[in-house]
Design brief:
This protein is of the alpha/beta class. It is 43% helix and 16% strand.
Length: 345
């Protein structure tokens, strides 16, 4: 099965790809807004029509219309990978017309897809109800299985000893991801440092909170590292955190990449008590869940987790068991099986 990937610069596919893969990028001039999405639709459709394909795969909602149109013109089939609950992401909150547009776009093309995929069971069930379709196939956003070589990068950067507890937040510093809650929570945590490994628009605001809460000396910001180094760097921390806020349906049903990166790195986890996060944390005994909007609850939970070494070791042990399930070689099998079935037919 030969594969040709069309992507924006810097994007990567989440598929485990066969041999005979070629790839090209589509340059987009606009960076946001209606012009951005119009240009994506026009250019991706144009590029897709240059490819002799029996099947087109839309890796998100923004190219679904393009791939469906290309399939129609070529007499081919198409599939759709909903990596988010797209009509209910943070950017549609308080913007009913935007939400309506994306819901109508998804509704228009999703029924014609020969296969559908998404990233959590709750999103799959929501899509089934919203569009009267069978639940899409679950394909988790999990990292590939590989040995972890713990790096001293974080401790070297900050001059911290091997005994110092590190509370880690991976990923972008954006609104409603609980970063501000974490900074405030540190006022209730003894003998630990908080590290944000990533970048984003909230950094200056978070620095301001750390100064006003007298936690500046224990809150640190380190730019993102290469993706192939993330797990090795993260594994030197003591606890991983993901405190998504319950501000939209997409957050409520989310299973963030960082959750599975913490599992792969062997870290106990503090997470918001949202539907899917809570299910994974409690089912596998990976840490604790709290009200992600309450910095006092988050701080007390972190302080308790750090004070109980025996329990920390139990949670770490449980990550080894969870890793047997949450790795890409296993998670990708339903994805590949459906595509291979389509190609065979």
């Amino acid at each position: 099965m030969a594969v040709h990937i069309l992507s924006l610069p810097g994007e990567s596919s989440r598929a485990v790809l066969p041999t005979n893969v070629s790839e090209s990028t589509v340059e987009i001039r606009h960076s946001r807004g209606p012009a951005f999405f119009r240009e994506i639709r026009h250019k991706f459709l144009g590029a897709a029509l240059q490819i002799n394909a029996r099947h087109f795969h839309a890796s998100d909602l923004y190219v679904l219309g393009s791939m469906a149109s290309a399939a129609g013109r070529k007499g081919a089939t198409y599939s759709y990978d909903a990596r988010e609950c797209y009509p209910h992401v943070p950017s549609t909150v308080g913007r009913p017309w935007i939400r309506w547009y994306w819901q109508m776009t998804e509704h228009r093309f999703i029924r014609g897809a020969s296969a559908r995929f998404t990233v959590s069971e709750s999103i799959a069930n929501h899509m089934a109800r919203a569009y009267d379709i069978p639940p899409p196939t679950l394909v988790l956003n999990v990292p590939p299985a590989r040995p972890i070589n713990t790096s001293s990068f974080l401790r070297d950067q900050l001059g911290l000893s091997a005994e110092t507890n590190i509370v880690l937040h991976l990923g972008q510093l954006k609104k409603d991801r609980g970063c501000d809650i974490l900074v405030k929570a540190m006022t209730r945590v003894r003998d630990a440092h908080l590290v944000f490994l990533g970048s984003g628009p909230e950094k200056e605001h978070l620095e301001q909170i750390s100064r006003s809460s007298n936690t500046k000396d224990r809150v640190h910001f380190i730019p993102p590292v290469s993706p192939d180094l993330v797990l090795d760097v993260a594994s030197a921390a003591t606890i991983g955190t993901t405190l998504l806020q319950d501000t939209c349906l997409n957050h409520r049903y989310a299973l963030p990449n960082k959750l599975f990166e913490y599992v792969a790195a062997g870290l106990p986890i503090l997470a918001s008590d949202l539907t899917e996060l809570k299910k994974v944390i409690t089912s596998y005994g990976l840490g604790q869940v709290v009200d992600g909007s309450d910095f006092r609850a988050a701080g007390d939970a972190l302080d308790f987790m750090l004070s109980d070494q025996q329990q920390l070791e139990t949670w770490k042990h449980n990550t080894k068991i969870a890793r047997e399930t949450f790795h890409w070689e296993k998670a990708s099998q339903p994805f590949l099986a459906e595509l291979q079935s389509l190609m065979a037919s």
